[in-house]
Amino acid sequence: MKERKEKGLVAAARKPKRGFIQNFRHNGKGVFGLIAFALIILAVFLIPLFVKIDAESVYFVTDKAPSRDHILGLDMTFQDCFSRLIIGGQVSLLIGMGVSVVTLLVGIPLGLIAGFYQGRVGGFINRAAELFMSFPTMVLLLLLVGIFQRMNAITLVITMGILGWPGTSKMLYSTVISTMKSEYIEAARAMGKSDFQIMFFDVLPNSITPILVSLPFRISGSIMMETTLSFLGLGMATSWGRQIYLATTMNVMVNQLWMWVPATLCLVAIIIAVNCLGEGIRDSYDPKLAKR
Amino acid sequence: MLKFISKRIVLSVGLFLILTFVLFIMLSFLPSYADNEISSHIQEYGSITKEQELSYKAQYGLDSPVVTRYVKWVKSLFAGTWSYTFTNRSTTVLSVIQVKIGETLILMSSALIVGVVIAIPLGMLAAVKPGGIADNIANVVTFIGVSLPGFIIAIFLIYIFSARLNILPSMVLVTSKYPYAVQMILPVVCVSLHIVGPVVKQVRGSMLDVMNAEYIKTARSKGISERRVIFKHVFRNATIPVTTQIGLSVPMLVGGSVVVEQIFTINGIGRTLVVAINSPSDIPVVMGIVTIQVLVVLVVNLSLDIIYTLLDPRVAY
Question: Which secondary-structure segment (H or E) carries B196?
Fold first, then answer.
């Protein structure tokens, strides 16, 4: 009986604020972002099913400009720009989302522990987070890439994900502290639940919303970081960042627009889409924020 | 006051030592010149003895344990050498940095100044009339500065001002026909956007927060001019979060300038860092440059802490 009542309480608290979906539906920015983001994902992952995509082959033709065979032309190394655009999109999207997942996997437990135990443990985790934050992420990333030598997609995702932990953990910490003051946590304690149970089944579901709401921004931040890295020639070889890098040659920038403009536009489009989606979600979750 | 400042300085020194020690350990994993020579030795002779391996490492001072090397490195900081580069064992790292740091400091400090000078008035205008023209401009600028990667902004600006309009150079070169200040315009704008974006957002947000506070209403009802209310009462209350935001943006500034130096071929420490990391790594140079970057972040944050006490009498020391 008691058990059931307690569960009901938690479930009530767990339910998102009433009207989130309704709010979101009326949020033009959010809907636009969602549709645009979905379209880009569909395009990047479905086009290879219908069109032959070959990002590796080298085509020996005299004219690199767009033609019927290569609708976006060929790049400096005579590889098909359209194929590289699609594959680069897959790389950027998968890495962006993978990094966010890793960040959450690392940041959530740490923030939870810091907020749950507070005191010395919490202090230590928070100080460590501040230490991490006072350090330029880009520089740290450069160093790690140097240490691991050739990074493949998986090591890249793990490294970049781990670098993002302070933000998540600090954000969760601040909500966990206020959740800890709630009466249902005390009730759970009185029922004799273990720390682990309380942490993950009572505290976490009631504190995680801000983290989930900020997820889109995290994804766009990760995409930004990944493309910057490959722009500098330190990330994946087929990525939008690498295509945009071609524009640093003046001749390409002025005369061979097809090599870099599509990737640039796609990158800007996806960042705008994800940010609109994020703002839409945030504003419909907490309409008070929308006014700011 | 003095006690507070000295306490902060001691804390920063401790933080500096911890950060550099962690860095030192990290960097000892970078594939160094010695590793290169050892592997080429193995390729040539098929195997290598412990003594030979050590002798290769000794050439680069890598034969002792990490902690001993760290202590030696800290001593070299005070000796003014900052250890010696791997490419030339008689060149000090400090001399390499001295040559390169000028350009980076010019880039970063002018970006910081330009950023703050643009961001604060823009944020104020946006807060005074939400939804107005200034607010819309502020929105766009914030989006560009916060959400778009620095290199995209750089490519856009180069395309418009160098490739199409042909009024600004896309590279910083000694031999360029443009004066130095003109060459630095695009790089400084690119880096300063990292400051402008978050700071505009912060100024606007924290001013809107206090705009409707009771004491502002009181000030208005006393018949003080609107301008005075905004500057004297609203803005002063927004200064603390804004200074915090500027402090938080400094690591972004450092990271952003590494990318921008790469694009505009500015001969600063950021470019040197990227070259030094590439294998085989010139570990002492990497260590020296990252130390400088850590120092920049720490010094800015320390001075901001001191500025707080001047801005807000309520901050306890």
Answer: helix B185-211
pTM, rounded to two decimals = 0.83
Q: Which CATH class is domain B94-281?
A: mainly alpha
CA separation (Å) from A140 to A133, A144, B77, B264?
Answer: 11, 6, 22, 22
Residues B263-316 pLDDT 10s? 898 989 988 998 888 867 888 999 999 998 888 888 888 888 788 777 766 665
Is there a contact between A224 and A270 (Cβ–Cβ < 8 Å)? no
Selecting from B148, B279, B294 the residue whose C-beta is nearest the C-beta of A135 gives B294
Q: Do A248 and B159 make contact, defined as CB atoms within 8 angstroms?
A: no
Q: What is the ipTM of this complex?
A: 0.80
Nearest by CB to residue A264, choosing from B23, B147, B152, is: B152
In chain B, count H helices and then E strands: 14, 0
